[in-house]
Request: fold
Amino acid sequence: MYLFIFFIAYSLLVFVLRSFLLWKKTKVNPLTFNKGDDAHGYNGKVFGIISIIELIVVSIYAFIPNWHKFLLPFWYLENDTLVYIGWALLILSLLFVWFAQSNMRESWRIGIDEENKTELVTNGFFAISRNPIFLGIMIANIGLFLVLPNAFTLLIIALSTVSINTQIRLEEEFLVKEFGEKYTEYKQSVNRWITFKSVSNDK
Reply:
């Protein structure tokens, strides 16, 4: 039950509440995935499917424990230590995503916004990662797998990895067109996922 409550709270905080606050302040809808069949619109549908799978999995775990076996659990990974690590990653992800969204302020979007001009954010968490929100989501997916190690949570990691990496490349292409040399310089100084001491030009 705790995992279900956390999943709902996570979704409400980082998607619903953030969207409402941005809309209230700017009157801009941050959900910018189109309904077309291009790569951007298709990836939006994949994100939706992943969210549905997550909801189904945590709902079964919370309300229909007898169906847990149909999720094909990896029983050899079911131990308290991994569960604690998983929960720590889930909480870390929530904090990481929330504060990264705060860094973006009015520039935060779910998808690519080709209609409303935004600012290029390079401070805060964006000084160490070009994609801290996506990084936080990936951390949450790993945390979910450790709490519930089964074939479907592993599928969520696989689908999210492909979908997020596709979205990142679409956004990078858009940002180069939108900000030009400014984004190119930022791209050369900050890694796609996380930056430590030195950064190579090949990212």
Remarks:
- Residues 74 and 117 are 47 Å apart (CA to CA).
- The helical segments are 2-26, 39-63, 80-104, 132-147, 151-179, 181-189.
